[in-house]
Amino acid sequence: MKNILLSFCGAQDPLNKFGNDGPILSLITRKPDFHKLILFHTKDYITQATSTQEIIKTRYPQIDVRPKKLSGLEDATNHEQIFNSLRPNLAKLCPIQPDLQYYICVSSGTPAMHACWVMLAASGEIHAILLHKPDERMLRSGQSNIREINPYTRIFPLIRQSTVNVTENAMSIDDEMFQEKVKAAGIIGRSPGLIKILDMVRRIAKTPSTILIRGESGTGKELFAQLIHSLSERFDQKLITKNCSAIPESLLESELFGAKKGAFTGADKDKIGLFQAADKSTLFLDEIGEMAPNLQAKLLRVVQEKRVQKLGGTAEEAVDVRFIFATHKNLEEMVQNGQFRRDLYYRINVIPIYLQSLNDRRGDIPVLALHFLDCHNKNNKIFKTLSKESLDFLVRMDWKNGNIRHLNNLIERAVLLGTKDEISSEDFLLTAENEGTLIPIPEPYEGFKMKDYIIDIRRKLVKRALEKTGNNQTAAARMLSITPQAVSDYLKNQEGLD
After folding, report:
1. Element containing residue 51 per DSSP (H, E)
2. Can you list the alpha helix ranges (DSSP code H) found in 164-321?
3. What are phi and psi of 132, to 5 degrees?
4. Largest CA distance in the chain
5. What integer pLDDT is reported at residue 25 of this predicted model?
6. Mean pLDDT of the region 181-195
7. What's the pTM?
């Protein structure tokens, strides 16, 4: 794990007026295990930043110090200026990766800078531990002169990022109405890839063009369809949706095209199809790759001609529909294999939107997890928090199966099944392979003891971890993101491990 320290450069850096070490040097002296220091400063503090860099380079050559001037920050007491100048740099310089742990020094710079750091961390916008060096005169005997502050504990008020963070320097998505639409659609995050997608959505939403949303299962394709519709000229009409894989082929045709009375057994009256229901609105067809070839041919004509003929009918009806399609499949490969019509592919692939998997937007995992936690706390009328190590665990997970939907389910299970107010990584009940697959939960029965079941699962995970690490308790604890003492405690009772 590489430790990265973030800090502003202040008036007392590198040395204070008495010639003693300032806040940054004092902190590093007491905690020198950093691999890198990113030192943000204004144009007026270039000299202090350079001097701090030189002293640290002399004393601690293993620390890579990177001074970074914040353009646009003229007033170090202006919270808005601080946020606007800091955010673009955080996105570029501070990627969320499993092997990186961020710390923030909240002792250097102005009080406004300290407040901005706290809000950024508490909201989950940057996943970091706060480090504070109190005035030596305020310390009691035996107290540590470096305090670690975890902003995700119960004592901190809930500050949650509800939508994307965009600045004037990042993208053109700064309109208040657009932000409200994004929030209403439930789209959350700050990763550069997400910002680019939203910028594209804003530019194409009001056009009548057909859109194809691509992405793995659970990446939020329907949420983006809702957002596009809400931003279109058809926003005042209901969005019509249908999952093509959720209904048998024999029924899907009548669902889409409608049917005349007597068209098939059970058709005792005329039925309006979804193409007609979506007239003057938007039709979202999810999992279009699951559609049977004969229906693909009929869909092609509707997309081309905007005319529909009901099953059992002879007359055609004109429809004014804006189409949004979605799939998790490789349509190009399906076209090559003859499983998907080439002409239909080109008709629906007018404006493709590629949604990233959660593995590709790990920077959004903490804020998504905290958002889901708030939702499930509210729904269940309880209050639980996520520990720092549990958030680290989620960031390190492999999300190749399930993505955002899986993350939501994982948080819900932890809220309901966790035995403590603070959720730990053990509460996620993951397989030892850590592939994001949940251990099957049994059906409850009269006399079922949930506590014993959870203890048994934890013991089995410890056993598997020990097997993988050659009975090295420290390594097993690291693999499971628990303490070596916890491994030792589980080993005290061997019964149930075999």
Report:
1. helix 46-59
2. 176-185, 192-204, 221-231, 249-257, 274-277, 293-305
3. -125, 135
4. 95
5. 93
6. 86
7. 0.64
Same fold, 2-149 and 205-354: yes
CA angle 192, 328, 274 (to 5 degrees): 110
Assigned token pair, 256? 């889409």
Give the residue from 374, 355, 215 showing the smallest Cα distance to 289. Answer: 215
Phi, psi of 177 (to 5 degrees): -65, -40
Question: Residue 213 contacts by C-beta under 8 Å, 6 or more apart in sequence?
Answer: 221, 224, 225, 324, 325, 326, 327, 352, 353, 355
CA distance 126 to 116: 11
Distances in Å between the alpha carbon of 14 and those of 11, 58, 113?
Answer: 8, 13, 17
Token pair, residue 261, equals: 């009375």
What is the C-alpha to C-alpha distance for residues 21 and 12, in angstroms, rounded to an integer? 8
DSSP sequence for 268-284: -S-B--HHHHTTTEEEE
* Domain 205-354, CATH number (from 3.90.180.10, 3.40.1230.10, 3.40.50.10860, 3.40.50.300): 3.40.50.300
Give yes or no for a contact between 39 and 66, defined as CB atoms under 8 angstroms apart: yes
Q: How far apart are CA 193 and CA 17, in angstroms?
A: 45
pLDDT of residue 180: 86
Contact (Cβ atoms closer than 8 angstroms) between residue 173 and residue 164: yes
Q: Are strands 100-105 and 211-214 parallel, antiparallel or unpaired?
A: unpaired
**Two structure tokens written together for 454:** 């959870």
Residue type, 272: I
Q: Are 312 and 260 in contact (CB under 8 A)?
A: yes
φ and ψ at 379, to 5 degrees? -65, -35
Residues 6+ apart with CB under 8 A from 191: 91, 356, 361, 363, 364
Secondary structure letter of residue 218 according to DSSP: T
User: 114 CB contacts (<8 Å, ≥6 apart)?
Assistant: 106, 107
Res 393: pLDDT: 82
Task: Give the residue extent of every domain in the chain.
Answer: 2-149, 205-354, 366-491
Give dist(CA 61, CA 355) in Å, integer: 42
- Cβ 199 vs Cβ 171: under 8 Å: yes
- Angstrom distance (rounded) from CA 200 to CA 430: 36
Q: Which tens digits make up the pLDDT trace of 329-352?
A: 999 999 999 999 999 999 999 999
pLDDT band at 137 (very low <50, low <70, confident <90, very high): low
Average predicted confidence (pLDDT) for the chain: 83
Amino acid at 386: L
Give the CATH architecture of domain 2-149: 3-Layer(aba) Sandwich (3.40)
Task: Write b or e for each residue in 156-188: b if 16 or more Cβ atoms lie within 10 A of its Cβ, otherwise e.
Answer: eeeeebebbbbbeebbebeeeebbebbeebbbb
